[in-house]
Amino acid sequence: MTTPSVLNSSGPALQLNLIMDFEVRCDGEPVPIAPASQRLVCFLAFQPRPVRRTYVSGTLWYDADDRHASSSLRSALWRLQPMELVCVSNTHLWLNPCVQVDLRRVIDRAEGVLRSEPDAETVFRVAQELIEVGNDILAGWYEDWVIVERERFRQVRLHAMDRIGELLIQQGRWYDALQVALAAISTEPLRESAHRLLVKIHLQEGNIAEAIHQYRSYAELLRRELNGRPSAAIRELLAPFVVIPAPAGAVR
């Protein structure tokens, strides 16, 4: 693959926002981008490495023949030329490495918590960021490749919040852990690990009645929505305080 010369990293600061809605900012000012070019920039932002032009055109303009798809790609690239958002070779395309992408930043920080032993300040900072950013990316976009990335982000965020909640409990920061658990439940109301986290927090604070109430609310939600039952892991948290009989056929 022939790589073009490196774009000027001392040029204007370029920011690409994908969380919630699409936005490009140049030196802090929003820049209008044509819809076809928006799709191209977003698609490249999701790629971990340069991708072939034919793959890009075939994915973004899948309902056109090869000639028209290639023409649409050239048009989208031409509209982006003044911005230097995209790097181009004869065969491949990739997002300019100088572009700061909000989604990449959040995912990198979330994965850092999952793969390391972060200090207390890092845990708190990432917790706040994951609560604030919400769960959606490119709201209102329904392309298959967007849906895949949306689910990937959702899973990274939920797993990171599970981990962060446990770390905050260990640090005795129960209020902060509570906010994380509630944000996770808001994202996925049936996620048992989030409800289990909330039960743990109530017990750590000595609020046994609230812990029991949370368990029973979750058990009723699970029964109503899926005709399911909570696992033994969440029931055992309450075993020292109340008898919760395991229903027939319960998961152990």
Automatic annotation (TrEMBL):
List, for all copies, the residue spans of the domain called Bacterial transcriptional activator: 101-242
Which SMART domains does the annotation name? BTAD (SM01043)
Instruction: Provide an example Pfam family for this protein.
Output: BTAD
Question: What SUPFAM superfamilies does the record tag this protein with?
Answer: TPR-like
Check the record and name the PANTHER family matching this protein: TRANSCRIPTIONAL REGULATOR REDD-RELATED (PTHR35807)
The entry's protein name is: Bacterial transcriptional activator domain-containing protein
Tell me the organism.
Kineosphaera limosa NBRC 100340
